[in-house]
């Protein structure tokens, strides 16, 4: 497998970018959005470690923080959701193609295109429903159990993570249909 960074569109190459057209711009937006979300996911993981270690130390020295479990759970949700699109960019998901690999290349592309489209539609609906759920939670005034903090912003963030995955799947679908899936 080639270096994953080779498929990314470099910023300094403006001439290549203009030759790529609309698909190139779409891919550029996809890469930067999902890389940014992945950075935030990494920061969330580091914050989780910091909170758990700080809580363990404070438990021994004085008393533990209140709401550590909630905070770590929220950070885990952000880390998971924000890592989804970047994992799709890196083709990091398991593909079970034992049956499909015996088909002709054209049929394989058709099946892959259908799967990418269906997946993009599904995760678009997940993201949409998460937004409507966040609106409902905000209107009801729901707060977390221990810390009494409104948690609807977290639901919006999870929806954003699923939107990043939707974008990555849609761009892969367009590349597959156009026939440029392996060009990058």
UniProtKB/TrEMBL annotation:
It comes from Thermincola potens (strain JR). It is found in: Cell inner membrane. This is Tripartite ATP-independent periplasmic transporter DctQ component. One of its GO terms (biological process) is C4-dicarboxylate transport. Residues 48-177 form the Tripartite ATP-independent periplasmic transporters DctQ component domain. Belongs to the TRAP transporter small permease family. The lineage of its organism: Bacteria, Bacillati, Bacillota, Clostridia, Eubacteriales. It is a multi-pass membrane protein. Its main location: membrane.
């Amino acid at each position: 497998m080639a270096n994953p960074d080779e498929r990314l569109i470099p910023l300094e190459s403006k001439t290549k970018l203009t030759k790529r057209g609309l698909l190139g711009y779409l891919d550029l937006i996809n890469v930067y959005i999902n890389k940014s979300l992945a950075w935030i996911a990494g920061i969330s993981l580091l914050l989780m470690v910091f909170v758990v270690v700080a809580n363990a130390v404070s438990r021994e020295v004085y008393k533990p923080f209140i709401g550590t479990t909630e905070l770590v759970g929220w950070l885990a949700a952000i880390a998971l959701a924000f890592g989804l699109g970047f994992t799709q960019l890196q083709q990091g998901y398991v593909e079970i193609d034992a049956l499909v690999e015996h088909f002709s290349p054209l049929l394989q592309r058709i099946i892959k295109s259908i799967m990418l489209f269906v997946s993009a539609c599904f995760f678009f609906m997940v993201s949409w429903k998460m937004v409507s759920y966040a609106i409902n939670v905000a209107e009801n005034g729901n707060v977390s159990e221990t810390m009494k903090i409104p948690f609807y912003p977290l639901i919006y963030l999870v929806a954003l993570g699923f939107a990043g995955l939707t974008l990555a799947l849609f761009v892969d679908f367009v590349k597959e249909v156009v026939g440029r899936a392996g060009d990058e």
